[in-house]
Every structure is written in C-alpha cells, then in structure tokens.
Amino acid sequence: MSTIQPIPAPERPLFMQPAPGYCATKRILKRIHSFQDLIRHRERWGPDIQIACPIEELIPANIPVPERHQYLDKEILRMMRHVHRDLNYAGVSTGVYHKHWDAVEQKEQRDHYDLVLDYFRLPRQDDAYKAYETMMSVLEQAIGVYDGRLKQAKWDLFNPVMWVAHVVRLPITVMERAGLASHEKTADMVLGGYARFMKIAMSVILCLIALGLGVRLPWKDLVLRLFDLIAK
Question: Helices 160-168 & 170-177, crossing angle to 10 degrees?
Fold first, then answer.
C-alpha cells in the first residue's frame, strides 16, 4: 500500500516580494484555474470533468480530436513553472513524499515528488485518483489564498498607505532587479544600503517639514551630515 504525504513549506526569504496587486492577482487566478481545467480534461475523473470549463476554451478549434490529448500535455508543461511559482508564493507547499513497500528490498521506501513540476511522474500504480485528488487539493488551497488576496487588493487601490509602501520599498525593488538580493552574501549589503537610504530619506522629510513650519535650520551642518550618511 502506498501513501502520499505533504512536505512543509520552505523557509521564507529575507526580502519578500510585495503582495500582487489587483490586476496581477486576477491574472494568477486565471492561470491556476486554466491549469486546473487542463488537468481535469486530461484525467477525466467522473463528476470533476463536469465542473471544468468547455474544452473548446482551452484548445484551438483547428486542433483535431485525436491530437487534443497531446495538446493538453503540452499546455500543462508550458504552465508548470508559472503555477509552481504562484503556489509557492501563496505559501502552499507542492512537495510530497510517496511511501510505498519495495518488494525487492523488503522495506518501505520514501520518494520525494513535486506535485506540479513532477505531475507526469507522480506514482499512479496503486491509486491513480489519489495523485489527481492531491493535485486538486493543492490548487484549491492556492485559489482560496488568491481569492482572499483579490478582495484585499480592491481596497489597497484606494489605500494611501499602500502607495507609500511601494515608494518606501523602491530601493529594494531596484536592487532586486539588479540581482543584488538574490544571494545570501549580498543580502546584508542590500539591507545596509536600504537602511542608509531610509536615514537620508527621513532626514530630507524632516527638513521639508521644518521648512514648512518656518523653522530656521543650520544648512551647513545638515549638508555635511547628509554627505556623511551617503559616504558611510
């Protein structure tokens, strides 16, 4: 008898990507739903095929019926990496252990699989429906996470705090785009650079507030102090 057991989600990185916005969340949900329907049409398990979207929405009209199965496999392969990234970002673990009895070695074996990336390699000898059921369960969990995110993203569009948060995070975004936050050794450098940026930004904001209130400032000392912050 074999079983499939989930693996705990991996540890989160030091710099988390900001939550996707309203439009990005809608794209992610559409992608996960499409991936789910592709698998439903490929596996064709009883009542589940009835809740999938029409296959004509997934396959171009010029694809002959005998070639549809091959086309479904190709589309699943193309979407695997994107869906895997979406699920992991949502905190939904896609790793599983498959425990089974090895008749040759006469002992229990435990193999590791990724539900999404290893979809075509998932063990189906003893219970093919179990692999399909586990995959659907994981996709439904991710859909639930992004449905909740979509509702929150609607409010974030009108929340000034979120717009400020995007501005505050801009230096990290720039350094991530430059590839500086992708390695453990450069993460400390990025964190130090961000802390320096925040000190400079807060100093400038306080100076502008003081000017607005009509407070006289020792500009020479402030400029020298600002250069010290930049040079550190």
Answer: 50
pLDDT at 47: 83
Q: CA 31, CA 69: separation in Å to the nearest integer?
A: 19
Q: How far is C-alpha 79 from the chain's CA centre?
A: 14
| % of the chain surpassing 70 pLDDT | 59
DSSP 8-state class, residue 121: G
Q: Do residues 7 and 97 make contact, with C-beta atoms less than 8 angstroms apart?
A: yes
Taking the C-alpha atoms of residue 170 and residue 71, their distance in angstroms, rounded to an integer, is 41
Long-range contacts of 122-127 (CB under 8 A, 24+ apart): 122/98, 123/2, 123/4, 123/98, 125/2, 126/1, 126/2, 126/100, 127/2
> Which range among 17-21, 135-139, 162-166 has the greatest average pLDDT?
135-139
Residue 214 makes CB contacts below 8 A (sequence gap 6+) with: none
Q: What's CA 107's distance to the chain center, in Å? A: 37
> DSSP letters of 12-51?
PPSSPPPPP-HHHHHHHHHHHHHHHHHHHHHH--GGGGGG
Contact 41, 49 (CB under 8 A): yes
Smallest Cα–Cα separation from 94: which of 82, 110, 105, 104? Answer: 82
Half-sphere exposure of 111 (CA within 13 A, CB side): 13
User: Greatest CA separation found in the chain?
Assistant: 86
pLDDT in tens, 10-65: 555 544 566 788 899 999 999 999 999 999 999 988 788 888 998 888 888 888 88
